[in-house]
Design a protein that fits this description.
Blueprint lengths: L7 H5 L7 H15 L4 H8 L18 H11 L9 E4 L6 E4 L7 H19 L6 E5 L23 E2 L6 E4 L13 H15 L8 H10 L9 H8 L3 H10 L4 H19 L4 H7 L5 H12 L16
Parallel strand pairs: 3-4
Antiparallel strand pairs: 1-2, 2-5, 3-5
Helix pairs in contact: 3-5, 4-5, 7-10, 8-9, 11-12
């Protein structure tokens, strides 16, 4: 956090954005402290979304591979309101081009491209080849070896520097490949969520909306206490509790609502067992999730596994 130049409460705030300098500082500190020159690749790999509490998970449910990549980067909000990448189609193969007029740290570019690569491999799931090569406008950084590093199962991607533009070069037809997990229902639900929060993220006018968003992105992580939420919002715990009650909700009710809403998305996804869903919703034990689910729908989750029957309510 010292390298990132921010506080723990800022890191927990879904509306907080790290600057380029902070990311470069983090990479420099990690290289020095951990002696890992490939830290950008490790960071990018860890950023790959694994569930509905992670920004960019909507990428897995897009119609095509290219749409998934664009959605992934867009939801990281790396360029603010403007997308930082675009797809350029050529006869020799498609490109994912860095399309931003602002100069950024090479570390940030390497992290983004590592994130896109690792996520793309999951999207392709071995059905087709993805990245052919990476091209960068900047000179080769000192100590740079390859992208990605630390992966013995795959050949490294050729990386070229001092090029006219920065882009990932893809194998022919990869960008247009259909994704097997394409799910319009999930995309619609996530779009509604995004619209719901768009009006309040920086206004901080509705403590219920802010707390809902805060909990949504931390469900399978630590820090779900009312005290941590209040610290993130910069107010006293009792003040936040009072404001929530004034809107007709308690902190515990909000947490249950977030878990229930997110549980519906996991059931729509239909590819996880109940233990994994329970962990993703922040339950330490399957029995606790079973009790909660039964209180929501009147029967245990095992009756609805693999179906959308629970969603009628």
């Amino acid at each position: 956090m010292s390298a990132l130049q921010c506080s723990e409460s800022e890191l927990r705030d879904p509306g907080y954005q790290l600057g380029d300098q902070s990311i470069a500082s983090l990479c420099a500190a990690a290289r020095e402290e951990l002696n890992r020159m490939d830290v950008y690749s490790l960071i990018g790999k860890k950023m790959v979304p694994r569930g509905f509490s992670d920004s960019g998970f909507a990428a897995f449910f897009q119609a095509s591979f290219g749409e998934g990549l664009i959605k992934l980067v867009e939801e990281q909000r790396l360029g603010g309101e403007r997308p930082v990448v675009k797809i350029m189609s050529l006869s020799s193969g498609d490109r994912l081009v860095w399309d931003h007029d602002k100069m950024v740290s090479p570390d940030l570019l390497h992290i983004v491209f590592a994130l896109v690569y690792h996520c793309g491999e999951l999207l392709a799931d071995g059905r087709f080849k993805t990245v052919k090569a990476a091209h960068f406008e900047h000179p080769r950084p000192e100590g740079f070896r390859q992208l990605p590093e630390g992966n013995a199962n795959r050949e490294p991607i050729p990386c070229y520097f001092n090029r006219p533009s920065t882009y990932l070069e893809y194998h022919p037809r990869a960008i247009n490949m259909a994704l097997p997990l394409h799910n319009p229902e999930i995309l619609t639900a996530m779009r509604k969520q995004k619209t719901f929060f768009a009006r309040s993220r920086f206004e901080r006018a509705s403590p219920v909306k802010l707390t809902y968003e805060y909990l949504l992105y931390l469900l399978d992580k630590s820090g779900l206490s009312l005290d941590s939420a209040a610290l993130t919002f910069g107010i006293a715990e009792r003040t936040l509790r009072r404001k929530l009650v004034a809107e007709g909700m308690s902190y515990r009710q909000l947490l249950e609502q977030v878990r229930r809403d997110t549980c519906q998305l996991y059931f729509l996804e239909g590819r996880r067992n109940l233990s994994e869903i329970a962990a993703k919703l922040g339950y330490s034990e399957l029995s606790a999730f079973t009790r909660a689910y039964t209180s929501w729908y009147g029967h245990p989750p095992s009756q609805d596994t693999g179906s959308a029957a629970a969603l009628a309510a």
